[in-house]
Write a structure and sequence with these properties.
The chain is mainly α. The protein is built from 7 helices and no strands. Helix 2 runs antiparallel to helix 3.
């Protein structure tokens, strides 16, 4: 069984690259958000700086992307809030099983986000446009949900694998 886990552990760089790409995208979105917001605020008070009408909708869309992608990134780091009040009273095996169960539920949610999010983006989103940018489809407003669903699936599969690995490999063997 040890050789199986060693072979599968060779996939870890794919997870690392996916995490780094998503983190870079989040950083890029944040910088873009700050620049657009700064330009919009300056444009209200400084006459030669433009104040585009589309800035609010674009900033809100970028924030939606950052929120759901950063939630997917938090899955990889295990940074989401979780209930640990009973952890000291339960046996370690029970806690491991409950962690695995919670990860399976989150994986289910990620698939729902991917499938339903894509459905909404491709149907409802493709029918409308932004008010201030009539040439831009509202698809882009709904698209962060399936993107985050995909990223969550990738990171949840890694978390589930690590939990299963924890059942077979003891702490001192790692």
């Amino acid at each position: 069984m040890n050789s199986f886990f060693k072979a599968v552990d060779k996939i870890k760089p794919v997870y690392d690259i996916t995490y780094k790409v998503m983190l870079f995208v989040c950083k890029l979105l944040l910088v873009t958000d700050i620049l657009i917001t700064s330009m919009s605020v300056l444009g209200r008070y400084v006459s030669f700086v433009p104040d585009p009408s589309w800035s609010e909708e674009v900033v809100l869309t970028l924030m939606a992307y950052m929120a759901v992608i950063s939630a997917a990134l938090a899955i990889r780091r295990g940074a989401h809030i979780r209930m640990t009040a009973f952890d000291r009273y339960l046996p370690k095996q029970v806690i491991k099983i409950l962690d695995l169960l919670s990860d399976l539920c989150i994986l289910f949610l990620a698939f729902v986000m991917l499938i339903v999010g894509w459905k909404y983006a491709s149907t409802i989103g493709s029918k409308g446009t932004y008010v201030s940018l009539p040439k831009l489809s509202r698809f882009w407003m709904y698209f962060p949900i399936p993107v985050a669903g995909f990223a969550m699936i990738v990171f949840q599969l890694e978390a589930i694998y690590n939990h299963i690995k924890g059942f077979f490999i003891k702490e001192e063997d790692k």
